[in-house]
Each structure stands twice: as C-alpha cells, then as structure tokens.
Amino acid sequence: MDRLITQDLAIGYDERLIVDGLNLSIPTGKITALVGSNGSGKSTILKTMARIMKPQRGSVLLDGKAIHSQSTREVAKQLAILPQNPVAPEGLTVRELVGYGRYPHQKGFGTMSREDREIVEWAIEMTGLVSFADRAVDQLSGGQRQRAWIAMALAQQTEILFLDEPTTYLDMAHQLEVLKLLQQLNEEQGRTIVMVVHDLNHATRYAHHMVAIKSGKIVAEGEPAKVTTKEVLREVFGIEADILFDPRTGVPLCLPFELFRESLRTAKNREHQQVKSKQEDRAYGKQANAVTNG
Amino acid sequence: MNAFNTRHDAANARQMPVKGRPLAAILIITGGLAALALAMAAATAIGAADIRLSTVWDALFRFDPELSSHHVVRDLRVPRALGSALVGAGLAVAGAMMQGMTRNPLADSGLLGLNAGAGVMLAVCFAFFPQTPYILLMVYAFLGAAIGAGLVFGIGSMARGGMTPVRLTLAGAAVSALLTAVSEGIALMFRVGQDLAFWYAGGAAGITWPQISVLWPWIGVSLIAALLMSRSITLLSLGEEVAAGLGMRTRWVKTAGMLVVLILAGSSMSAVGSIAFIGLMVPHVARFLVGVDYRWIIPCSAVLGSLFMVLADIGARSVNPPYETPAGALISLAGVPFFLWLARRRGR
Amino acid sequence: MLRSKKEGKRTAGMFAALLLVLALALAACGGNNNAGESNGAASGSDNAAGGTNGGTAGNGAEQEEAANPQERTLTDALGNDVTIPANPQRIIAPYLEDHLLTLGVMPAAQWSVPNGVQDYLQAAGLEGVPTISYNLPPEEVVSFNPDLIIVNSPSLVQNDLYSQYSKIAPTFVLSDETTADWRAALSKIGEVLGKEEEAKAALEAYDQKVQETKAKLEGKLEGKSIAILWLTAKQFYMVDTKTASGAVVYGDLGVNPPNIMTEIPEENRASWNPISLEKLSELTADYIFLVNYEEGQTDSLIESDLWKTIPAVKAGHVYEMDKNRSWLYSGAIAGQLVLEDIERVLGE
C-alpha cells in the first residue's frame, strides 16, 4: 500500500486555486516523476505534499495521518525536501551543510552526537563528496553543489525524498551525475523519491512512475511507457513528438519536432496559401516568432 | 565508516577546517570580553575631566558623595560605559539576526527603516508629549522601529517575484527617506529640531543610571533570546523552504526573531540615537572570523559590538576635547567605506 | 576629526548659532500669542511707535534728520555701492534691532524664528512690531514694502539673494566681523542711517553705565571668576569672552573667565562652547550665571548630584537669569540689561 496519498487537495495563492481536487498516490519505494509545462502546478503540488505549503482544502496523508496537522519536526523525520535551486550562505562548508540535515533529530542547542556525526560522514560518502567535505559549498561545481544538498537531505534519514527540479541549471554530465545518485539511493536503500523534472527523457529513463500534470490536474499517470504517448505530450506540453524506444534499455524516448498550437496551425495554412508573396513571408516570419516566443 | 579514512583529503582543501571555527569563536569571545573589560576600564578612566586613576578607584569602591570627581566617575562615566556596551551588543546582534533571517548581507537597522521609523515616533513624542518619561520613549522608539520595518518588508514583498536583497535594500532606502522627511517636517512644524538633531547625531554621552536600569533587562533578555534562537537563524539563512523542510516552524521563528530585533534595535536607539553601521559591520566581521553558524556569530557579534561601541565612545570624547564628537558620526566615518567595500565585493 | 582647528572652530560656532536659533524657537512657545495679536494691531502704528521707544537716543535727533534730508551712497561689506534713501521710514534689519532701537529707529518688521522673537527687546519697544522670518524670504520682505534693508551677514544674501533684495529696496550688508562686535555694528548702522552722533552718544552712555556698575561692585569682583552658562536640551554651553553677556562681564567689567574656559586654547573657542557635565565638574568659578531653558524639567541636569557638588553651586552662588533677559544677546540695550542684572545680584 502506498504510504503517501493526497485527498481532494486544493491549493492556491490568495483566491486563485492552482490545484483543485487532486487525488494522487505516490508508490512506495519507487521513483516518481512529476512532469508538466511551466505553471502547470507540479512544483506547488510537490511543496504541498512535502508540507512546506498549506493546502486550502483536502489533505496529504502519510501512513493515513494528515501531515499538515502533525508536528513539522516529526514529519521531517519521515520526509525530506530539496527545494528548487537552493543557495548556501557564503563560506558554509559541505560538512556543515550536511550537518543541518540532522536538525529534526536533535534537541535544544543542537550539539552533534556521535551518531549524528557518523550519519553525516555516511551521507557525504554516499554522495561522493569526501574530498570536498571541508570546501565551501558556494565554491563547488553545480553538480557537486547539488550533491551536497542531496547529502543534507540524506542526513535527514527519511524514507521519502522530494526534489524540486534537481537538474535545472546543470550541464548534461552534472544532470546525469545527480540522477544516477538518485537512482542509486532508490535501488540500494529503497527510498521513495518524488521529483519534478523538466526533461521528459530523464523522467522516462529514471522514474518508475510518471505523473503528467496540466493546470493542476492529472492528465495521465503510470509507467513511463504508458504515459509517454503522442496524445499526452500534445495535451500536456503542446508539442508534436515522435516516441522512440531506446534500443538498449527499452525506455521510451520522446523527440519533439513541432509545436502543437491552434495559432500556429492557422499560420501554417497561410504559409501554404500565400507562399509567393515576399511581404507575406516576412509577416509570417514575425508571427511565427511570436508564436514560438509565446 | 570508511569516510573517516579519507578524511586527510580535507587537509588539502583551501577552507579552514570545520573544527577550527568554534575554537576561533571561543577565542574571540574570551579575548573580546577581556578587551571589553579593558575598554570599559579605560572609558571609566578617560574623560574631559582630569581624574587620577586612584581617584577613579576610590570613586568606585570608597565613594564620597561630597566629591564631584567621584560623581563624574559614578554618575557619568560608568553608566556611559555600561550603556555603550549594552547598546553596542544590542545593535550588532539585531543586525546579525536581520542578516540571517532575510538572507540579506546588507540588512541593518539603518538600512531597513528601523532607525527612520524610531526617529518619526521620537519626533512625534518631542512634538506632542514633551515630558514623556524615558521608558515610554523607549516603547515609542520600539513601535516606530516596528512601523519602519513593517513598511520596508511590506513594500519589499509587494513586488512581483517576492523579496530579494536588492528590493529590500531599495525599499529600505525609499522608506527611510520618506520617514526621515516626515520627522524633519514634524521637527520644523513643531520646532523640536534640536532634540531630534541630537538624536540623529547619535552618541552615548547622555546615558544615565535610570536609563540603564530600564535598558538592561530588555537588552539582556533579548540577547539571551537571540542566543537561544541562533540555531534557527542559521537554518533560516539556508533558505526558508529548506528550513521548513527540515522541520522548523519558520513563521514562528521569523515572528519571534523580528520581535527580538525590534526590542534590541528600538531600545538601543532610544538610548543613543540613530547609530547606523554597527549592525551592518560587526556581524560581517564576526562571520568573517567564525563562519556561518549563528550560534557563534551571535555571541561574537554581541562581544565585538560592545567593544566597538565602547571604543567609539572613548573616541567621541578624545578626538576634540573638551568637546564631544558624535559617536554616530565617528562610526559612520568607519562604516561608509566598509559598506562600499562590501557592496563591491558582493557585486563581483 | 579630519578638519583643521580653524575650520572646527567655525563649524562649532555655526552649529552653536543654529542651536541658539532652534532653542529660541523652542523656548518662545509662550510668545506666540503676542506675535499673533500684534500683527493686526501694529499695522498702522509703526511710525507712531517710533517716538515712544525706551532707547537712549533722544527725539530731537530724529527731527533734525527729517529736516535735513539727503540721499547718500555708501559701500557695504560686499563692495556694493548702496544708495541710502534720504529718510528711510520702513527699515528691515533682522537681528540688528537692538542697534536700531538704540538709535531711536523703529523697524518695519522684527527678526523671528517660527514663533520666537528677541524677548528682551519687546519691552524696549519692539512690542507690537510685526515679525519676519530669520532667513528673510523675499516674498515676506516684499510684503513689508521696506525702503532700506540691512543684513547682518554676507551668508544671508548668498545665491543671488542680494539682487532679489536690492530690487525690493537698497540693501546694505554688514561683514561678519562687524556684526560680531556690537560697538562696530552700532557705529556702522549709525553711519548708514546718518545717525553717527546718536551712535557715539549711545556708546558713551553705555561706557558710563559700565563705569557706574564697576564702581558699585568695587572690591566685590576682585580675584573672583564668573561662569556664564546656558542650559538647553540637556547640554550646557559656556558663553565665550567675546560674545553677548561674555563680552560685558569679561570684557567691559574685566571679570576673570572660569578655569574651564581658559583651559581651552583661544583659537578653539566658539561663541557658545558646548561643555559636558563631566568637564563642568572641574569648574572652580565663584559665581555662576545660568540661563536655564530647562526650567521646571524634573530630569534637568541641574537636578543631578554632580551639579550639586560644583563649588559655586554648593556655596549657593548660582543665579538663574530669566529667559526674557538679554544674556545671550549683544548690543547696547542687551549689555545694559546684563549690567543691571549683575548689579542687582552682586551689588547689595
């Protein structure tokens, strides 16, 4: 049975609801990827599931208990969240940062116990940062920095780990570095991982479970192969794409080749009809630009 | 745990080893306290009136109410030194907490509208309730600081995309300018410019025992509260979402923290007037010396802030004797170049 | 500080002057009604009042002048050639009213800060004369339709103000040096108004008065020293030997200035020397003349234990001078009032 589910969740800022009536279940011990276009509400859903945002209605249940009404510190022993693009204070070392992951387990003034220290060193080792442990986080490369933050979340020793766009702003090698680490954590330690990712191919390749979201609603969910269809991509991202299957792994790969928008279709029609007029050509160029930009 | 085996790698790293920081902090706190004791002794011994050390000693331990030199030591110099120390600690810790909570390296009671807000309230007091007793004056300064800070944070967070250090600083500058104009308007209309001018100049010269007796419980309790909150402040300095994810009640901590800041800054300002830059400079120096952990930054800021303020006050009476030079001006003289240096370093 | 001593002195002096202006504004709350009522009443009575003044010059001189009108051209401190009208009737000479009254001339408007005037001159004849703001706004000047403007400092006509004033009426500027010495100022204004004789007579009368006072106090001031203190906004100022009542007491009567004055090098002294309570504790003067703007304040500095240990205070030799007296002003009238006060206090 899934440990974490949402019931009739409604989330919004002020009056405006971004998410309304969301029922979502996170498979335990799997990697779940939330995908959707910008502004679809996937980040908001992630934050609410990790209780750093409050829902306006409904609840998030962890083992059957609403997390928003539990002690936030107790919840922090069950689930950890790594926000999007966190920034460490200048001069904070990796070991110091990871040490803060022990916060929910400590009392009072926060003196590190022997156990705490061991867990910190273990998290540093897990993330391959041993030789960087005493470096300032702000002086590391993007990938190392993200691994340091993941190490902090690891030190929190939670079954469930939320990550909001952990690969954004990283180059390709660093993206892989982070995703492989997450995969390893899942496989070796059975952690439940929920992440928002932008790159569909990362989702299909590393996630066991995909949730496609549009306007705060679930459009499709399930195994990547089931979710990654032409129809879903058109609906969720507004793109036309070919779906291939990686010959090595059998994982679906999506190759977008065209935007799917009403406005673009009319523009294309015009192009066919009036291809000879240079003036019209120029006008189309403008319009097409406008469409891609929008 | 084979992580320990590879630990020697860390020795190659450029950064100071993590264990050195508490050591540095303890050194600073003990050394700073010793220096503070010396500075306060000097502040008691040095002044416009020429009083021999033996007389100073007698004034403290064999007080003779008939001797004016004994009164100088007891009624003027000692409260002045104590007051400077209290206020210096208060302003520095208030600045450190603001910088941590807002993650804004430029946060300071002067830059975030607290000084200007307190100034307006004091102008109102001087204009409409000229006989306000000191304790009420302090409460008004505190309220004014709250109003100033409220306006700055309100405007700063109104902008789309939320509060960034730059927005906050801009809002602070705008609100401060507005509130200062209001104070000056009140000063002109109700002819309290003289009282206000002294307040804006800033200095510990007027601190008396009755003021100290009101001041120290507030600042003392707030400093202890700041110390107790220091770990939470460190977490907040990692970012609000990170702190919330780690199980901290961010709203509660921010509210309590702001309250402590307002009490510290408001009561300090009611005693010595508008002294900018201690709250900005001292925490940066502390952070430079002991790293990013507010459990160390806050006590170090308190000690260094006290020391700095006591020294500035000694400077205030030694620069051009027998005249007093406003300590606020002396501090700004050191503070402005520091501020520019900081802004430049940040800009890179 | 970084500035030179000379500059420091000037700045201190300007600051003190500013303070005086502010303090007068502050102190003169009670005078508000007077000024308000008089504005209406005095509109038509300026010339009539000329004959009723309590100054020293006689009416005969004025008639003589009126009988023999002649336009003259004089060069002022800025090198302007100023054509003085034959018989100026509507003179504006802010802060020079003491001299005008001495010469038997009633100004068209009198100097004021927002609601304060020169209190001591009201009884001497200015009662009922409308007020003009100390900084002489041109619109206000125009509204009085003056036929002669006399200004006591080049600093008042900076930024092209001179040309604005001189379009309204001939404007004569006194140098700061002249203004600082009331005898020179009186003589100069006598010259401008063609009343040299009256000026001379007034000076002689004053010197006569000085001699009389000296005679009355014969032996009583031998080897004694007097301190003249002004207390306002929790700050004591020591009146310099060349200013206001200081010029009378130390200059004309030849009384010794107090030890804490002579300890300050002459080039560092300002007109009003701010003096800390701490320095004041070393005061050995035999008598203190105190102009107290903190009258009735419970937390006033003169309620402090330290003040009460000062020898002159212990001996009961503190004489509080009414705010409405002339101890902070210069001029023949101001000086004579000071002489009267001293005679009354020490002469019995």
TrEMBL record, chain A:
It holds the Pfam family ABC_tran. Keywords: ATP-binding, Cell membrane, Ion transport, Iron, Iron transport, Membrane, Nucleotide-binding, Transport. Residues 270-284 have a biased composition (Basic and acidic residues). GO terms for molecular function: ATP binding. InterPro entries: AAA+_ATPase, ABC_transporter-like_ATP-bd, ABC_transporter-like_CS, P-loop_NTPase, Siderophore_ABC-ATPase. Residues 4-240 form the ABC transporter domain. It is a peripheral membrane protein. Residues 270-294 are annotated as: Disordered. Its main location: membrane. Transmembrane segments: none annotated. It is found in: Cell membrane. PANTHER family: IRON(3+)-HYDROXAMATE IMPORT ATP-BINDING PROTEIN FHUC. This is Iron(3+)-hydroxamate import ATP-binding protein FhuC. It comes from Thermobacillus xylanilyticus. The gene is txxe 1152-fhuC.
Automatic annotation (TrEMBL), chain B:
It comes from the Bacteria. The chain crosses the membrane at residues 81-98, 110-129, 135-156, 168-190, 215-238, 259-282, 326-343. Keywords: Cell membrane, Membrane, Transmembrane, Transmembrane helix, Transport. It is found in: Cell membrane. The keyword Transmembrane applies. It is a multi-pass membrane protein. PANTHER family: FERRIC ENTEROBACTIN TRANSPORT SYSTEM PERMEASE PROTEIN, IRON(3+)-HYDROXAMATE IMPORT SYSTEM PERMEASE PROTEIN FHUB. Belongs to the binding-protein-dependent transport system permease family. FecCD subfamily. This is Iron complex uptake ABC transporter, permease protein. It comes from Thermobacillus xylanilyticus.
Automatic annotation (TrEMBL), chain C:
It comes from Thermobacillus xylanilyticus. SUPFAM superfamilies: Helical backbone' metal receptor. It is found in: Cell envelope. InterPro entries: ABC_transptr_periplasmic_BD, Bact_iron-sidero_bind. The keyword Signal applies. PROSITE patterns: FE_B12_PBP, PROKAR_LIPOPROTEIN. This is Periplasmic binding protein, ABC transporter, substrate-binding protein. Belongs to the bacterial solute-binding protein 8 family. The gene is txxe 997.
